[in-house]
Design goal:
9 helices, Leucine-rich Repeat Variant, 145 residues
């Protein structure tokens, strides 16, 4: 399954094609991953081009559960602002209290979000602020946790 995902993420596509079709296909492929595929993906992602990593980060929503979450956390350390923002955007889908607690206690994450906010455009600012709000609001209530 990894090779199929790698081929898809490596393919040259238009932005519209990727967001309309490619990411949906990638999510389906990820849904069929076994633990060995996840292990290989976690190790291989570091040697891939930045555009490949960005496509991957976009597809690692909460349906991928802990495997996707851990991979997103590791991709946060890559020194690219756009990849960081994609990871934060995707992490917004991880709404369970366990994921929120992990994010709140992730070293330097909140500091990096604050730094990114200082130079963010309108769209990026909304994503970052929504991410921070999501860490504070319980999905099971209308108030704050």
């Amino acid at each position: 399954m990894y090779k199929e995902l790698d081929n898809l993420l490596s393919a040259e596509t238009t932005v519209d094609s990727w967001y309309d079709d490619g990411c949906v296909i990638a999510i389906e492929i990820l849904g069929d991953f076994n633990p060995d595929d996840w292990d290989f993906l976690s190790r291989a992602a570091w040697s891939k081009p930045l555009n490949w990593q960005k496509k991957l980060a976009y597809c690692l929503d909460s349906t991928q559960q802990i495997h996707g979450f851990e991979l997103l956390i590791s991709l946060l350390t890559v020194g690219d602002r756009e990849l960081f923002e994609i990871c934060i955007d995707t992490l917004r889908s991880y709404t369970s209290p366990e994921y929120k607690q992990r994010l709140i206690h992730e070293p330097l994450l909140l500091e990096r979000v604050a730094t990114a906010l200082s130079g963010a455009g309108i769209a990026e600012r909304r994503v970052l602020e929504d991410f921070l709000r999501g860490l504070l609001i319980s999905p099971d209530s209308e108030g704050y946790t």
